[in-house]
Amino acid sequence: MTSEPVTPAEPGAAPDLVELAKIVARQRAELDRLRDQAATSAVVERAKGAVMALTGCSADTADERLLQRAKAARHTLLEECWITLGSLAPTASGPAEPVGTDTPCFGSDVLPEAAAPDDVAVALARLGQALVRVMTPHDLARCLLEHLAPDMAADAIMIYARRPDGGLELIGHAGIDDQLAAQWSQVPPLSGIAALDALRTGEPCRLEDVATHERRDLLIGDPPERWRSRAWLPVPAAGSAHVCIGVLRGRAGSFTARDQAHLRGVAGLCAGRLRAFDAPPERAGDAATDAVQTLFDALPIAAMLLTPLRDASGEPEDFRVEAATTRAGDLLGRPGEELAGRRLLEFRPALTEEPLWQGCLHTLATGQPYESEPFAHEEVVAGIAALSTYSARVARLDDALVVSWIRHGSSDRQEQRLADLQRLGNLGWANWNLATQDASWSSQVFAIFSRDPAHGPVRLTGLPELALPEDAPALTRAVRGLLQEGRAFDLPFRVRTSGGIRHLRLVAEAVADTHGTPVEVHGVVQDMTARRRAELALVESEQAILTQHDVLKAERTLASRLQQALLPLANRPVHLAGLRVEVAYLPAQSGVHVGGDWFSAVELPDGDALLVVGDVAGHGVDAVATMAQLRFTAKGMVITGSSLTGALARLNTLLLHSRDSHATATMVLARYEHRQRRLVWAQAGHPPPLLLRNGEVRYLDRPKGMLLGATATPVFEEAECRLTPGDRLVLFTDGLVEHPPEGIDRGLERLADAVAAPHAEGPGSLGQLLARMLPDERRDDVCVVDVRVPRMQEV
């Protein structure tokens, strides 16, 4: 084989791709011839592997038997090998009969008594035919997975070769991702690794209970329980085995006797195929590939030669890398890796989602070259990381593709950066030569004015004609001052385009000659439409906020006055039915400072006391109106003899039939019978009162009660509690105990601790309680009714 000498290109010089294409075409023709020879050698090795798998004989014995049968039948060795492989092919009714009339493919001298079962022999025959087309260890792994997945539920295949140091190197895999393959690509020579044990002993190693083996062995995989059973098969060799095949299954369980016979046959077939990889004709083919690779090594750019791999329909499903430069691995994210001989998607599966993949398919189908958009790639030069700009180019060469990456020079990058700056900033530059009356605009200026570049740029004195009539005079004066006096300007103006009115900004300055006369004008035009619209929207938003603020202020003032009129507060404690009652109301400190919290503490005509706290959902005038309605209605119904539960039921009906059908409220309604010191109370979705007695605090057990306004069929019940002298009862709304992000349960605990604290009984204790419970800024109203039963000496 001869090849043209390759002269390395000078550093920085671009290669002549036409000459490269001619050289590669000749190299490919020679490569195809040598691959035909390699295929012939592969058939011989496959037939030897089949004889070894079915008889258990050595490689030399299998070779001798094939030669003897070929001589006896007067066939060539290649014909006899094809006859041997063809006799293993299955038919519709079962295994095919041996081909040939004189000598059967496998006589009694070939098949021993312990031959594999018929179905295993048929499966091995199918595998043998498939292995003829296998060219690399990765192809071998994929072929084995396709064969063993349906037969024994194999989920992954890993092929390891022994390194000189005794460790293992992953040379082929299928069913696992690239990350896991990279993690387990090198296995050190440690004890307790099944694959190494199989190579040392020369016997298969089966791990059928991963939980048991995990305690004493180092299992390959992450996590190891991903494959709950596995078998490691040493590939037979003349000396000690140096290749081990792993069959990994996701299911647990043992390998049956049939499975074991099947796997022994697979290992034998693979022995022949692996030797075929190293056969002399194949090595000759590798020499042709090496010649092409030598050519690529001389290229000072990143480039690859790809051949398509087609599916059954003839469509390309992947590409094989026939040769690649060192820089190609860097750009593909595989620095230092050998790319030649591998599938493109094997080391970059996500490539199918990138424009380069579609470019390759388009070029392969049409022959039209493809060039990608420029992209940035980080490079490390002298230990310093820097971004460089590249473009990918694809050209077809017969049925192959030449993919190259061109690194842009500094001037190209500067031009690209300038174009990006103009595009992202929506601005462009313009020059006017006053001496020659020539003008030049960047492409972005044409886009800003929506002007067809074929019409050319507009003269400086013609710019006012593009502006709206109301903006043209100011622009005319600015241009006249620049031309006559050299006075620079920065002026906003508007133009009408096909996309509507645009707000533009022109910044221009003059360059004068030695006499001070302007001879050239440099300008920058910027589209300010989006910014101007944002400014107008901001002004409108500010005006709306001010208007809303005035409305809220008026509403707050009105609601506050209304609430003060409806809910007057006493300046000192009051005495009702023998009780000492102190009340407090604090509005929220954010939003509208009035809400729907209320209280009632009145003495009834029969001498009893009515105690009420309630909370209407929401704030503002509507909440205050609903509060007044509930407060006076509840008081009127109890004074006129209604029971507590009856009053709550009627209040619920009142809310349901009010104009605001969404109004809801909670409340506690209590009646204190002073003769028996009995407190009867009911509630509607409200926190229960807190009782302090003899230094112990507890919340009263809540009777049944539902939120007012929630349903037309509520259920309310009453509960009672006997009060004794010295008792303290605190009724409150949820604003006292609910302070997000703290939960209400934590608030109830803090209230109980505050009421039970020492010195919480004296004058001003309610104020101390509020100061301890409330944060600096209240988000909700707070209403508290503090009830004390005087001791005998206090009466």
What class would the helix/strand composition place it in? alpha+beta
Which bin fits the share of residues in helices? 25-40%
Distance between the termini: 125 Å
Number of helices: 21
From the alpha carbons, calculate the radius of gyration and give it in angstroms.
46 Å
Major sheet strand order? 5-4-3-8-7-6
Helices and strands in order:
Layout: H1 17-55, H2 59-73, H3 77-87, E1 90-91, E2 94-95, H4 118-131, H5 137-152, E3 156-162, E4 168-174, H6 178-183, E5 186-187, H7 194-201, E6 205-207, H8 210-214, E7 229-234, E8 243-249, H9 257-277, H10 280-297, E9 302-310, E10 316-324, H11 326-331, H12 344-347, H13 355-366, E11 370-371, E12 375-381, E13 384-397, E14 400-407, H14 410-425, E15 427-433, E16 438-441, H15 443-449, H16 472-485, E17 489-497, E18 500-512, E19 518-527, H17 529-566, E20 574-576, E21 579-586, E22 595-603, E23 609-619, H18 621-639, H19 644-656, E24 665-673, E25 678-684, E26 690-693, E27 696-699, E28 719-722, E29 728-732, H20 744-756, H21 765-773, E30 782-788
Antiparallel strand pairs: 1-2, 3-4, 3-8, 4-5, 6-7, 7-8, 9-10, 9-14, 11-13, 12-13, 13-14, 15-16, 15-19, 17-18, 18-19, 20-21, 21-30, 22-23, 23-24, 24-25, 25-28, 26-27, 26-29, 29-30
Helix pairs in contact: 1-2, 1-3, 1-4, 1-9, 1-10, 2-3, 4-5, 4-9, 5-9, 18-19
